[in-house]
Amino acid sequence: MDLNQFPVFRMMAGKMNWLAERQTVLTQNVANADTPNYRPKDLKEFSFKDAGAARSFKVALAQTHEAHVAGAPDSMTVKSERQSDTYETNPNGNGVVLEEQLIKVGQTRHDYTLMTRLYSKHKQMFSMALGRQQQ
To answer: For the chain, what are the domain ranges?
Structure first.
């Protein structure tokens, strides 16, 4: 059973993809903490409302043979934006504040853990409702 057919799973997977992309952007910010004139970037905040509406009418790939793997859902198109508010700027023009970036990394990790736990609990609930025992 493809759980991505259900909107709740599709939206949780979308949030997890967004969090993974955000972690990549934040690690680039930390890696460029000493680069002159570098400004930190971040992703536009994820919205479940937009994610649900955008994915409601997607057409899935056809599975023409039972041995074929079902097509993966569309990957989110995320775009990093320059962070507009920086608390301080180094003399070389760099706007990365490591403490701020590490707080965002920690929050992103926490949110990802929350999404994986929710995904797991919803999957267990579906299995229980269908009368299948968890192995």
So the answer is: 3-129
Residue 99 to residue 12: CA distance in whole angstroms: 28
Highest mean pLDDT among 19-28, 41-50, 86-95: 19-28
- The closest of 105, 127, 91 to 9, measured between CA atoms, is 127
Q: In whole angstroms, give the CA distance from residue 101 to residue 27.
A: 8
CA separation for the pair 43, 14 (Å, rounded)? 14
> Could you tell me if 25 and 80 are in contact, meaning their C-beta atoms sit under 8 angstroms apart?
yes
Q: Are 63 and 35 a contacting pair, CB within 8 Å? A: no
Q: Is this prediction's pTM over 0.70?
A: no
3-state secondary structure the chain: CCHHHCHHHHHHHHHHHHHHHHHHHHHHHHHCCCCCCCCCEEECCCCHHHHHHHHCCCCCCCCCCCCCCCCCCCCCCCCEEECCCCCCCCCCCCCCCHHHHHHHHHHHHHHHHHHHHHHHHHHHHHHHHCCCCCC
